Amino acid sequence: MGKTLKVEMTMNVSEGRIVNVTISGDFFAYPSETLEELELEIRGKTVEEALKIIDDYEGRVKLVGASLQDVKQLIQQAGREKPDRKSPA
């Protein structure tokens, strides 16, 4: 990881699904709106489903200062923390 990357994620315990996710940090995404689209697409999904969706974004978005692999690692870490509260990774 080259620059700062942060994933804040809230999960629903009983359903095991991502309620909200925000990906931010000191990096650039091209095209910039693609990151917001990714956040919207993984809401309501399980962590495993979210990881597959992130894989689908390979080639659709270019990150400078971070990688989609970095995002996947932080999603996995946040998913292992206590659900139903913000999990900064």
Can you put this structure into words, describing what you see?
The chain has 89 residues and is α+β, with helices and mostly antiparallel strands. The protein has a single domain, classed as Enolase-like, domain 1 (2-Layer Sandwich), CATH 3.30.390. Helix content is 37%, strand content 26%. The protein is built from 3 helices and 4 strands; from the N terminus they run E-E-E-H-H-E-H. The protein has helices at 33-42, 47-56, 68-80, and strands at residues 5-12, 17-25, 28-30, 62-64. Strands 1-2 form a two-stranded antiparallel sheet. Strands 3-4 form a two-stranded antiparallel sheet. Strand 1 (5-12) and strand 2 form a beta hairpin. Helix 2 (47-56) runs antiparallel to helix 3 (68-80). The protein is globular, with a radius of gyration of 12 Å.
Q: Give helix and strand order, one letter per element, not per position.
A: EEEHHEH
The percent range for strand residues is 25-35%
Principal-axis shape equals globular
The CATH superfamily appears as CO dehydrogenase flavoprotein, C-terminal domain
What is the CATH top level name?
Alpha Beta
Largest sheet: 2 strands, antiparallel
Distance from N terminus to C terminus (CA atoms, Å) equals 13 Å
Compute the CA-based radius of gyration. 12 Å
- The helicity comes to 25-40%
Return the structural class. alpha+beta
What is the count of distinct domains? 1
Total E-strand runs: 4
**What do we call the CATH topology?**
Enolase-like, domain 1
Low-confidence stretches: 83-87
Oligomer: single chain
CATH architecture designation: 2-Layer Sandwich
Number of helices: 3
Overall average residue pLDDT: 88
Placed side by side, the strands forming the largest sheet appear as 1-2
